[in-house]
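[job 0412] stage=fold_complex status=start
inputs:
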Amino acid sequence: MSAAAEKVVEKVRDAVHGGNEIPGAPGTQAPPVDEPTDAREPLPPKPDQRGPETYSPTGQETGIPQEKVAQGGERLTTAQGARLYDTDHSLKAGPRGPVLIQDHHLREKITHFDHERIPERVVHARGAAAHGVFRGYGAAAGITKAAFLAEGVETPVFVRFSTVLGSRGSADTVRDTRGVATKFYTGEGVFDLVGNNIPVFFIQDALKFPDVIHAGKPHPDREIPQAQSAHDTFWDFVTLHTEATHHTLWNMSDRGIPRSYRMMEGFGVHTFRLVNAEGATTLVKFHWKPKLGVHSLVWEEAQITAGVDPDFHRRDLADAIEAGAFPQWELGVQTFPDTEEQMFEGIDLLDPTKIVPEELAPVRPIGLMTLNANPSNYFAETEQVAFHVGHLVPGIDVTDDPLLQGRLFSYLDTQISRLGGPNFGQLPINRTHAPVNDMLRDGMHQTAVHTGVAPYHPNSLDGGCPFLAGEETGAYIEVPVEVPAARKVRDAAASFDDHFSQPRLFWLSMSPTEREHIVAAYTFELGKCWETAIKERALKVLANIDPDLCAHVAAGLGLPAPEASLVPAVVEPSPALSQLGGDWPVEGRTIGIVTSGADDLDGVREVRRAVLDAGMVPLVIAPAGGVLDQDGDPVTVQRTFTTARSTEFDAILVAGAPAPAEEAYGARDAKADDDMAVVTAIDPRPLLMVTEAYRHGKAIGAWGEGVGALEAAGLPEGPAGVVFGTTASAVLQAVTRLLGGHRVWGRFTPAL
Ligand code: HDE
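[job 0412] stage=fold_complex status=done
writing structure:
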């Protein structure tokens, strides 16, 4: 090594080990000048980065925590604390006169309002979040020194779920990937695990990210369609960049339309590197496994919900937490030896379009997350939270996955325009729970009042502080991995060229019903494309996944099915990828109970109580709102025939449904009346509810007069998942059993 190079190495070593912090560390030399190494008295206080103190400069305590200052007091004031006597009338020259420019309250109020909006996230703009706690099992202690993963350690977390393509006000249930971003407020600093509900990504290199997002976002001329991938530019991109085939296939599967944020898996996608106290490293992929299982909507349900309840997922998460049905996920890792080639069973661990099937590398649980509190303020918390894949703690490091490397740049950068400057880390939701003692100063929205005169290192004025940490004193030290000598190239490893073996593996792992959903999704989305050339190119891509898939979609599009251009890969299906089968907890499931208001109210009460006892949510649906009270024991109505739609319920129980009320339909002529009587004996709205629920594979039960209502709807007992009983509780028991499987899958008769 040249003398100059040796000097550089020494400098880096010094920076890492904190000068003399690690006596005797190999190669450590005394610095060339006499740097302070011990703190001198008196040590000036170094405030951490909390916001302004809760006492006023006059020393008077407000007693209100900084985060809760707004609307904390009795009297309305200006932002400066002056009390106001009127906030409805501008200051004018007489009651009918012009407004005076001296009206500070008017100007302050309007100016603040004018600046209430910040730019929405360029991707993942629509989200919902919750607070919670993570408890380590200790199972990862052998492979990582991360303290928050040690046994029994509890760490506060904040999790934001999101869709990718839509704007802030778009619907929740669109077909899209979902974000699952978790902020762990550990004692060693913030760790952000910024993942998705799909374990692979569209592209392999960050350089293509703006391109794929431009293609997925609305067309630039008319700005339509909103929150959709069913349009030409999206399909143009993903068929020209066939590395996107795997992710797109997951999008077209039921994973693209989750039933609930509570019922989604989360994936770190990239391979990460863990390091233990001895310096041994392990490659891992992170997984979140929901305790409630992984479940999805069916497509028609998702479409209806986007119209009748665009906030479906947001509401579902908040309601469940408010009701005490706290959602839980186990964090797990797949582990791989950290070899030079970073491959496992022929799968390139640095390629983010590849999974490692769980049958080859089981997911080992290492901790449990429970979400137990809703945010108090959407903007302050859910909107202002700023995640970054570079927020790491000792024991967790990144790999050279080129997508991950690009993300390390992007997440810091984006916050600066979104949150208006470099001090976003001081916002309450972003503040670390570890002590902060940085040398970052000033900038827009600086809220810390730093003292001291020497924000540089080393210094001899501020008592020498701050000193650097070393390995033993908890420094974050990047794993010193070897980087093999290579030429600078714009290229990727040859293994990145395999774009079809894993899509085929996914397709072959699906059950017939799931395959049918995939065919329907492709047929819908490609059917929405305008250009025939794009549909034809998409069919060529599908042919290389599976000829059967291609033939069915081609038939739906009315186009010839092309031949595959590649020899199909020989792959072993991974049963773990299918969502069907299994018996899951039913906590938090929503049961609609339809009553005419005049039928078995005792049964309604009984079934309501039993649903609650089972940890589920009963919603009573009656012809009109209010309280049903035939005998002094009231039943509250949560939904009416007008406000309820089947999509809100996981199962429907029918106690009875009345004939249509005349007034509900207004004046009709006599002929229409006659027609109505012929068509149905019951109100068409509950009729629609049960037929729709039937079509969507939901369990339906009836007792008493409800049996007649279901028969009138053309649902006599017998078809899969339609249960008749003599008592409400017997029917509920049967329906609850069916709910454990999420849907009555036997009702679907797939042709595939
Ligand atoms: Fe992101 N991504 N991303 N992403 N991402 C953002 O950061 C980016 C990628 C993910 O709830 C942005 O603060 C690049 C993969 C989630 O606040 C931005 C690349 C995965 C969220 C950004 C990717 C994700 C984001 C926009 C390719 C799954 C929402 C706002 C190299 C592993 C976080 C923001 C939240 C958000 C960049 C690819 C997940 C622009 C450049 C792969 C869950 O920085």
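[job 0412] summary: The chain has a mean pLDDT of 89.
[job 0412] exit 0
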